[in-house]
Amino acid sequence: MERPALRDLFSADPARTDMMSMRLEIAGEGEAGGEGGLSSGMLIDWSKTHLDEAALVAFEDLAEASGFAAAREALFNGGIVNPTEGRAATHGAMRGSGTPAQVEEAEALLARMGMLVEAIHEGALGEIKHCIHIGIGGSALGPALAIDALTRDLALVDVHVVSNIDGLALEQAFAKCDPATTLIAVASKTFTTIETMTNAQSALKWLGENGVSDPGGRVVALTAAPEKAVEWGVDETRVLPFPESVGGRYSLWSSIGFPVALAVGMEDFAAMLAGAKAVDDHFRTAEGRANAPLMAAFVDQYYTRLVGCQTRAVFAYDERLALLPDYLQQLEMESNGKGVKADGSALDGPTAPITWGGVGTDAQHAVFQLLHQGTHIIPVDFIASIAPGDALDPAHHRNLLMNCLAQGAALMAGKQADDPASSYPGDRPSTTILVDDLDAAMFGALIAFHEHRTFANAVLMGINPFDQFGVELGKQMAKAIDSGKGDFDPSTKALMKAAGLN
């Protein structure tokens, strides 16, 4: 589609930066537990996108026509927002955003988790220095991101997250841990996931072969099927349930966050929940373009549905967020990578873009060539913290921030040269998210912002973001290979023979 040039949008509206930017206030240190906490904020600047007033009005009309307000209330009030499975989506209740009954249940479950975390820290299971957290998908990506982001200074327990069924991943974790002081956390919603349960069995065997007399006594189960965990052999005092209505990629706030709390302590875990709730409160009450996640969805829809962009890039100019692109890949692509609407009718256009990204400044020397001079138009999100995460010479962080802001400016401005190879077309879109500091509360706010952005996109497209049937077929066919009963194509049969699987 033909779109206005970014330069022209700024020229036509001197106040564009203010009109297309928003600051969210987020609870800071200490605020999760009461008054007196430090205030921290998140600034989001969409001014370097091509949305103009006419586009914003059209998207606000689309939100109204799509029933956004009703869908949002259903999300927080326990309505069936996952119609294919007949479920609510109550992850918000785990951080205090839901019906009174849901919040009360969540508080009880988190209190139970907190007591176990405290008991472990106090030595109830012996000296615990390490934890191997075994899960896959949302049961691994969320904890891995949170632990990497929040334990750069100090970890109360050294946590290693293992998801891959490839034995090398588990062996690498074993090499970093002393079995005599290692806890095993097994995270599986159903407690039947084959990759997770295979890894868990191997971890128990490793403990037993290395002098641990009661390997089962070192296991904590994180699951929505507690009876399955008890049947598998975990004592019920070390089973931490979470509700069936909490989906895997939205489960960080539940007992799936146990390894995070173990590593950073329950106080920081509570701060993470409080930061997420601050975004919940904003998302639930703000309307139209004044709603940050909805506004972000307007930008996403503009580039995906109208411009035809097939990808969206995310670059965190902060080493603590190195795993954020991986996390967002699952959140966005598993949620909204659908071919039909929630009512089963076919979609009439593209859905979720392919989410990818990396860490600045590394990515500048790897993929930014394509962003600046390639033929693809790729909307970019830049994310950075104003406060540094390190204690080195301030020149490090100053250079980091300068590079982050310069890239957005360069993508927009471009540069014309007599030599075509030296020319930059410019007029390329970006959004910048600047946080005051990346503490636990701000981390929680960032994740909740992206959760609600994903939900808002789904509502605008009529998609159910809470099911994921697309991951099942491959699992079924893997079981068929194992049983030898599958009817496969000639190529797969030849590959099975070459791999020794028949």
Entry keywords:
18 helices; single chain; five-stranded parallel β-sheet; 502 residues; Rossmann fold; six-stranded mixed β-sheet
How would you characterize the overall build of this protein?
Helix 6 (138-150) packs antiparallel against helix 13, helix 10 (258-264) crosses helix 11 and helix 11 runs parallel beside helix 16. 46% of the residues are buried. The longest helix has 22 residues, at 100-121. Helix content is 45%, strand content 13%. The chain has 3 domains: 6-28 and 42-77 and 286-467, 3-Layer(aba) Sandwich (Rossmann fold), CATH 3.40.50.10490; 91-268, Rossmann fold (3-Layer(aba) Sandwich), CATH 3.40.50; 470-499, no CATH class. It has helices at residues 6-12, 16-19, 53-65, 68-76, 100-121, 138-150, 167-175, 194-209, 226-232, 258-264, 266-285, 292-307, 324-336, 368-373, 395-413, 440-461, 472-483, 490-499; strands spanning 21-27, 39-45, 130-134, 158-162, 182-187, 219-223, 239-241, 311-317, 354-359, 380-385, 430-435. By secondary structure, it is of the alpha/beta class.
